[in-house]
Amino acid sequence: MEYRQLGSSGLRVPALSFGTGTFGGKGPLFSAWGQSDAREARRLIDICLDAGITLFDTADVYSNGASEEVLGAALEGRRDAVLISTKTGLPMGDGPQDWGVSRSRLIRAVDDSLRRLGTGHIDLLQLHAFDASTPVEELLATLDALISSGKVRHAGVSNYPGWQLMKAQAAADRHGWPRFVAHQVYYSLIGRAYETELMPLAADQGIGALVWSPLGWGRLTGRIGRGRPIPEGSRLHETEAFAPPVEEERLYRVIDALETVAAETGRRVPQVAINWLLQRPTVSSVIIGARNEEQLRENLGAVGWTLTAEQMAALDAASDTLPPYPHTPYRQQEGFARLNPALV
Predict the structure, then answer these.
(1) Among the options 62, 186, 187, 330, which is catalytic?
(2) Residue 238 has pLDDT above 70, yes or no
């Protein structure tokens, strides 16, 4: 397994990490993802550790805390061998203190996660979403206190707008507080919006991308294609309403290109899709998930080899889309592109 620096931090993370949204299996979304108990989770973690995967990602909202509980139980006795990433900020109840990242909410959320995980510290705490109701100074001062206390080692964000992330970095510099070193983002061959603004920001500010849903919410598994609709038993039947949208013809165009490259390399479609991500700028780790051992071992086949420049270019071309304004003219007009080739 290759290990990479997480942004500009000193934390080294594996190129592939493991997402535990399939642990616990409670609620309409997460029960469709998977329902691994501690015994099943322990077996998947054994396979991960044998392959060199040492970073395990969860969130308090996953199955209403059950994912953290199962992960903690499955890691019992080997906490020092792994890194734990968890997220908070999304609603965990209907009360006024059950959502967001205010000082009181964030401190309580961290303590609750530590209890469920059965650990004394969180290696990477990420804010699951941008909370417009909490001043950035309150948020960063609280994170500074949590890091100083030893409960949290590094801080990151997830699903953040670029301007809010940059605002937070500037405030951290102004007050001497720890900066965000990670951004957990949706990024795939059928979801390349990350590249438009968040990727240049990450490169400039030393923020490593942790990629979630690298297979486009299960659409790039190789089981869907032209003339091959969503198969029976696919979780997409229950979860597609939650998925980032994609235009059907573009999806098939990307799948056609993936199948061509898969045939050239002797690899599986999902392995090609993940390998493409591992060669993209700012990507520190791609989070893979699995409901069973077969899925996990297939995803592990995404590392240990490299797509050629020609294959990368073919996948780039098949998945390319015009970015939204104000980035569009930098792609369409030579004069704009000359002023800022980094946006092209």
Answers:
(1) 62
(2) no
